[in-house]
Design a protein that fits this description.
The protein has 3 helices and 2 strands, in the order αββαα. It has a two-stranded parallel sheet. The radius of gyration is 14 Å and the shape is globular. The protein is mostly helical. It has one domain. Helix content is 40%, strand content 7%.
């Protein structure tokens, strides 16, 4: 799955920042066991269990509004924003 590959790549590049990951219960997380970071799954309909992610989404929206085409962004540009 594409999203899990992206997670693994970022875990590798920022390995000193990852202790655990809290995930949704969707099928996009089916390969969670393939990374070296323990994964926890939030309860259905309890978005407050992923508060950091919701906050992070808001910060990302400052740089990439909804419906932004990330395919036209360079990896370097995305990594610079990621570092911020």
């Amino acid at each position: 799955m594409i999203s899990e590959k992206a997670v693994r790549k970022n875990i590798k590049s920022l390995s000193n920042l990852w202790l655990t990951i809290t995930r949704d219960n969707g099928s996009e997380n089916a390969l969670h066991f393939e990374n070296n970071v323990p994964s926890f799954f939030r309860d259905s309909y309890k978005s407050y269990q992923k508060g950091i992610v919701e906050n992070l989404n808001g910060l990302i929206r400052e740089y990439f509004p909804k419906r932004s085409n990330l395919n036209i962004k360079s990896k370097e540009e995305i990594y610079l924003i990621q570092k911020k």
